[in-house]
Amino acid sequence: MAEPDLDTDKLDDAALAILSLTLHDGNRVWKGIDWSITDRLHAKGLIHDPIGKAKSLALTEVGLARAEAALAELFVKQSDDSKRSER
C-alpha cells in the first residue's frame, strides 16, 4: 500500500489537543497519552492491556484496522479531483 499524503497540520493539532489533556504546572504536559484514554481503548478492545512497565502499547487486530481507518478519514489530504467532486 502506498503511503498516504497526510495533512501534517491536522496531525499536529490533534497531537497538541491530546497532549493538552495532561496539562499541569501552567504549560507542562506529559509525553505519553493520558491513562484514561488507554483505559478506554483497552475497554473497547482496541489495545492489549496497557498495565506494565513497557513504554509501548500493542494494538489488537480490531484496533489496528480502526487506527488505519481513522488516520485515512481524519488526516489524509484530499486530492484535487476528490475536492471537485464534492462541490
Topology:
Layout: H1 8-20, H2 35-43, H3 61-75, H4 80-86
Description:
The protein is mostly helical. It is flat. The chain is 51% helix and 0% strand. It has helices spanning 8-20, 35-43, 61-75, 80-86. The longest helix has 15 residues, at 61-75. It contains four helices and no strands.
Please give the number of β-strands. 0
Q: How much is the average pLDDT? A: 88
Q: Structural class, please?
A: mainly alpha
State the distance separating the first and last CA atoms: 28 Å
Report the sheet-strand fraction: under 5%
Anisotropy-based shape: flat
CA-based gyration radius: 16 Å
Tally of alpha and pi helices: 4
Estimated helix fraction: 40-55%
Model regions low in confidence, pLDDT < 50 over at least 5 residues: none
H/E topology pattern: HHHH
Q: Main beta sheet, described?
A: none
Gist?
The protein is mainly α and 87 residues long. It is built from four helices and no strands.
Quick tags:
87 residues, flat, DUF6429 family protein, 51% helix, DUF6429, mainly alpha
